[in-house]
Amino acid sequence: MIHIPVLKKEVLQYLDPKPNENFIDCTINGGGHTIAILQKNIPHGKVLGIELDKDIFDKLSLSQTERLVLTNDSYTNLKKIVKKHNFKPVNGILFDLGISSWHLEESGRGFTFLKDEPLDMRYNIECQSLTAEEILNNYSEEKIEKILKEYGEEKFAKRIAKRIIQQRPIKSTFQLVEIIKKAVPAKRTKIHPATRTFQALRIAVNDELNNLKKALFQTVEVLEKGGRIVIISFHSLEDRIVKNFFKDSPLTGDLPKGENLKVLTKKPVMPSEEEIKINRRSRSAKLRAITKI
Predict the structure, then answer these.
(1) Contact 69, 204 (CB under 8 A)
(2) d(C-alpha 202, C-alpha 269), whole Å
(3) What does the pLDDT look like over 223-235, one tens digit per residue?
(4) What digits encode the pLDDT tens for the residues 217-270?
(5) How far apart are CA 102 and CA 192, in angstroms?
(6) In Å, how far are 30, 151, 242 from 177, measured between CA atoms?
(7) Domains in the chain, CATH or no CATH each
(8) 174-180 contacts: CB < 8 A, separation 24 or more?
(9) What DSSP letter does each residue of 89-102 carry, written as one string?
(10) What confidence tens digit (pLDDT) does each residue in 20-75 have?
């Protein structure tokens, strides 16, 4: 599996791994960021790598080392995972929230509108039951419109939702793409007309935004004072959640008593033109970092 870690240099700059420090990679994927951290926190520093997708987890081909702890789990269970592995102290935590190249190119689960595949879109097919196909074929027109509008920021959500209802049953990605193309006015968007709908369905199937919020509050509790949190997001909905959290504006309730966060990135850090040329999928990446004080 070819994996190009996004903003690797910047991740190392803001995580600032030092010898013998411990880090958590909440979205290990192909392991590019983890390998870079392990090269910096020698000789005894460790990385706890979390991967939700069992198929990606089974394909991980990282060099075996006692300094790397791998677990097939969700970062929404961060505190439980840390406790289970007695992983402490935690000096830094990384989230790379981008969908992996493997999901788009090899999973066959309908994450991309460029291939004709079943409309699944689950990250973990063993633990999750809701699929994109179920949403498209069983949800009401109003509920589908709401998903497209809230999770995809789709201007033509109403038109697309109406045509989806008319064209049921919908079984494949290409069938959905054709429905969207007929619903969206021609040449009214700079991106592929299906982009926002596919994003919205993926977020809804995997409950991505709520899961991110759950995980963020756990990071503060498991992180040592002076520890850093680095998060790479890829669309405005994620970035807004991260930005608000970093502002110490709690999403639900208050931060744990006595906990304070200091923002290290006044503005989000973006990939260089050189990186975008090498890895086009990095173009929408935004990195934000904080430290616990």
Answers:
(1) no
(2) 25
(3) 999 999 999 999 9
(4) 999 999 999 999 999 999 999 999 999 998 854 443 455 555 688 999 999 999
(5) 20
(6) 29, 18, 31
(7) 8-102+208-292 (3.40.50.150), 108-206 (1.10.150.170)
(8) 174/113, 174/116, 176/113, 176/119, 176/136, 177/113
(9) -EEEEEEE-SPPHH
(10) 999 999 999 989 999 999 999 999 999 999 999 999 999 887 877 899 999 999 99
* H/E stretch holding 14: helix 8-15
C-alpha torsion 26→29→35→38, nearest 10: 20
Matching residue, tokens 């033109």? 273
| pTM score of the predicted model | 0.92
Structure tokens at 255: 């931060």
Q: Which of 71, 17, 73, 75 is nearest to 46 (CA)?
A: 17
Task: Compute CA distances 291 → 20, 51, 54, 226, 251, whole Å.
Answer: 18, 24, 31, 6, 18
Tokens representing 169 are 């049953």
- Asked if residues 123 and 50 have their Cβ atoms less than 8 Å apart, the reply is no
